[in-house]
Predict the 3D structure of the following.
Amino acid sequence: MSARAALLGLALAALPAGPLAAQTYLVVVAGIGGEPVYQERFQVWASALVSAARDRLGIADDRIVYLAEDPARDTRIDARSTKANLDATLDSVAARIEATGRLVVVLVGHGSSTGGTLKFNLPGPDLEAAELAARLDDFPSQEILVINLSSASGGWIAALSGERRIVVTATRSGSERLESLFGGYFIEALTSEGADLDKDGLVSLLEAFEYARQEVERAYDQQNRLLTEHALLDDDGDGAGVHEPDPATGDGARARAWFLAEPPAAPGRPVSDDPALAALYADQARLEDAVATLRARKDAMDPAAYETELEQVLIELARTGRAIREREEVPQ
């Protein structure tokens, strides 16, 4: 055993045996279809994700909210997907979610970009990107994932990007207004085994993104069509999404360690009324989950790659632990 491996082993021994899993709250919004074919498509995609979240991914039913254009079409729909109902949903989640929890918002439908105003089409008043950005300020310490699977959605990244946030869009700009295929493939990736590219039994957000991006390109190639949609991912908070993430150089590192599947919760997670300390606890929990995920994937990984990734996470975890100790010593 190398000296490096021995040191990593000692560091691992000091960590909890399993992940301190944060509770995930999932809000799925299927917007207005406009035409029967899109009404059906958006509902099928959204319903598939909701079913998988409940049945396969371990998210408790009382932490899933499904809003759609026509609640009569599916008994799983909680309410109509109006802006008022979405606001009420986010109010409810904000009142219940723990400081280290995870909020996932998935938008399935049509979008638009006119005069710099970015919209997601809903029954009644549309949802603007700036409005959702303001609502997300109600979750200052939580991990936030926003997946906008609508057309003309690229500009939402700049509007929503921030610390402890991942934003995925189906297109790279407001000018990509045509029907998008990315949403169907992305939800397929999250709800099946096909996107498990490294065959470790787990599908990370990065794997789902890469799977969907490649399937879109394959579909366009098979139809001899020019690619008119370019999905983006931003997870480093710089407000600039990328079409081909590279965890080694920028976007993709957080998404690689982010899984929609919820591990069993473990007791003993620290809490704090101090927003800064709560945010640090959330970072610590995320990093501990990342270590646990790497442990689970170890046998399927190249040993050198495993040690490199583990070392990076442990260094960040040590820095976060030091910041927590320093903050805890500050008189409140």
